Fold this sequence. Notes:
By secondary structure, the chain is of the alpha+beta class. It has helices spanning 39-60, 68-86, 140-157, and strands spanning 2-11, 16-24, 30-37, 107-115, 122-128, 133-138. A six-stranded mixed sheet has the order 1-2-3-4-5-6, with helices on both faces. Helix 1 packs across helix 2 (68-86) and helix 2 (68-86) packs across helix 3 (140-157). The protein is globular.
Amino acid sequence: MELHQLQVAYNQEQDRLLLRATFRTEQKALHEVRAWITRRILIRLWPGILRALETKVTLEQPQAQHAKREIVGMAHEASISDNVRRGGFAAKFEDTAQEYPLGAEPLLVTTANFHLKANQPVRIEFIDTAGKRFEIAFSDRVLHGFCKLLQDGVKTAQWEVELAMPGMSGAQAAPVVLN
């Protein structure tokens, strides 16, 4: 199945982020998987995502591994700009799924495993307490978009968790005055 769309939305009643991922089958049917991401799992998931992004740089550009943090930051900025330009964040999430292979109720994610290979999408396997699992293969652009969705979700949730990208400064440098 091919990834079609991702959504991360804060649910105030549950105090969790709801991840919704839709996939298209070869017959073009739309399947949806839903998962809760708690603050606790997010705090463990984020460093894994950052390590995966940096490891991809090391695997695919070994000569540039000394600057992997900066490369990840620049790639993030470029991917987000590209997603905005393409209207990716403005597109309404399609609520037309025909099937829910893991059930309509969201899984409560307790573990995320990362699978990396050079020149391949980063694959993240999400697992719940009962052992139900699903995996998403993230192209670089989609993974950076997912990072942005998580960052926006955390802001909405007001969890006071900083999801900073490496190689990027949150604040601009103060002007320097020479006398």
